[in-house]
């Protein structure tokens, strides 16, 4: 099992999640510029259908593209969001009297910039919602909708000083083939094919203070989106809770029976609930082993043999076969290519 000094084992997401963004970048960037961005993030070789993308790669690509193109929303909307816009947004919301007031300012800010959508802030005694309302019949850009809603959650959580739970996240577009990636991003049930894309908070959060200092704002902007692109909350998604239980077990040997017992349910119930989430206990365990292997292969600090042993393979040959099945490349090829 990896030692406590190892970096955290964050989930990876599928390359397919980024393809909408990359499609937009291909029309927004010079081909040589985009190639350089991908090379610097070690994404240029990740073209296999089963390729995975790490948290660090997403963060670095976001930062490179936002600076390199002068568009802080990186071609995802019809109008460029010029450099400095997000700094002014944060300066505006951090002076609000409450989180509810800050979210209202968030929507007002974006409504000055967006041409193809308006962002509505709706509240009642039960909930607060930010809703993307189309101004025309343009096809929704899936990554753009995800990123703007995720930014709202990230800024709200930063203002509150901790990651905020959500009631619901809705998207107007149909359920994509990579839907299993969304629980990694949002601490709430995610619904597709809805009347509008929206994010919903509990109304009681609206009274939270929204005060942050200038230096805290600078740190938040410099690190963006490192602190908020992936959720840290695991309670909202059963597969992520199971993943955490396996990660904390000795040498990844947590069994279905043990996991079910720790979750207060029978093995049959756990199997049924995971099946309803289109996954299984073994698939979650394999995904965790894959992500530990990807982390360690990219860091270069361990031999392939040591990685295989750490994640419970009897031999490097068995690990080679499994890893190629997971991501479409052998461990050695993955490490050499920087995928």
Largest sheet: 5 strands, mixed
Number of H/I helices: 15
Query: What global shape is seen?
Result: globular
**Helicity level:** 40-55%
Q: Please, what is the average pLDDT?
A: 91
As residue ranges, the low-confidence spans are: 1-5
The total tally of domains equals: 2
Strand order of the largest sheet: 3-4-7-5-6
Cα-based radius of gyration, to the nearest Å: 21 Å
N-to-C CA distance:
24 Å
Order of helices and strands: EHHEHHHEEHEHEEHHHHHHHH
Which range does the strand content fall in? 5-15%
Number of strands: 7
What does this 3D model show about the protein?
The protein is an alpha+beta fold and 339 residues long. The chain folds into two domains: 211 residues, no CATH class; 100 residues, Arc Repressor Mutant, subunit A (Orthogonal Bundle), CATH 1.10.10.60. The strands form two sheets. Strands 3-4-7-5-6 form a five-stranded mixed β-sheet, covered by helices on one side. A two-stranded antiparallel sheet has the order 1-2. α4 packs across α8. The longest helix is centred in the middle third of the chain and has 19 residues. It starts with 12 loop residues before the first strand and ends with a helix. The N terminus is likely disordered.
Give short descriptive properties of this protein:
Arc Repressor Mutant, subunit A, transcription cis-regulatory region binding, Transcriptional regulator, AraC family, 339 residues, alpha+beta, 9% strand, DNA-binding, Tscrpt_reg_AraC-type_HTH
């Amino acid at each position: 099992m990896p030692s406590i000094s190892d970096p955290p084992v964050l989930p990876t997401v599928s390359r397919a999640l980024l393809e909408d963004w990359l499609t937009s970048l291909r029309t927004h960037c010079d081909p040589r510029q985009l190639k350089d961005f991908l090379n610097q993030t070690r994404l240029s070789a990740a073209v296999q259908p089963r390729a995975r993308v790490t948290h660090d790669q997403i963060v670095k690509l976001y930062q490179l593209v936002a600076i390199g193109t002068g568009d802080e929303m990186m071609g995802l909307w019809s109008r460029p969001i010029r450099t400095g816009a997000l700094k002014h947004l944060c300066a505006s919301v951090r002076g609000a009297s409450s989180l509810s007031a800050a979210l209202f300012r968030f929507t007002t800010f974006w409504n000055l910039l967006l041409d193809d959508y308006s962002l509505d802030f709706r509240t009642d005694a039960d909930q607060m919602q930010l809703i993307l309302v189309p101004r025309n019949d343009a096809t929704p850009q899936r990554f753009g909708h995800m990123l703007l809603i995720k930014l709202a959650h990230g800024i709200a959580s930063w203002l509150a000083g901790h990651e905020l739970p959500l009631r619901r996240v809705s998207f107007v577009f149909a359920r994509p083939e990579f839907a299993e990636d969304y629980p990694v991003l949002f601490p709430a049930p995610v619904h597709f094919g809805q009347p509008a894309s929206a994010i919903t908070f509990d109304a009681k959060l609206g009274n939270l203070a929204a005060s942050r200092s200038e230096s805290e704002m600078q740190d938040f902007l410099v690190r963006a989106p490192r602190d908020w692109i992936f959720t840290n909350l695991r309670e909202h998604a059963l597969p992520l809770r199971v993943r955490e239980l396996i990660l904390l077990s000795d040498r990844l040997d947590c069994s279905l029976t043990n996991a079910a017992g720790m979750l207060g349910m029978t093995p049959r119930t756990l199997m049924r609930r995971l099946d309803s989430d289109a996954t299984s206990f073994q698939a979650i365990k394999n995904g965790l082993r894959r992500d530990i292997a990807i982390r360690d292969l990219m860091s270069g600090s361990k031999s392939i043999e040591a990685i295989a042993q750490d994640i419970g393979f009897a031999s490097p040959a068995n690990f080679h076969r499994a890893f190629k099945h997971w991501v479409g490349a052998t461990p050695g090829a993955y490490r050499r290519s920087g995928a």
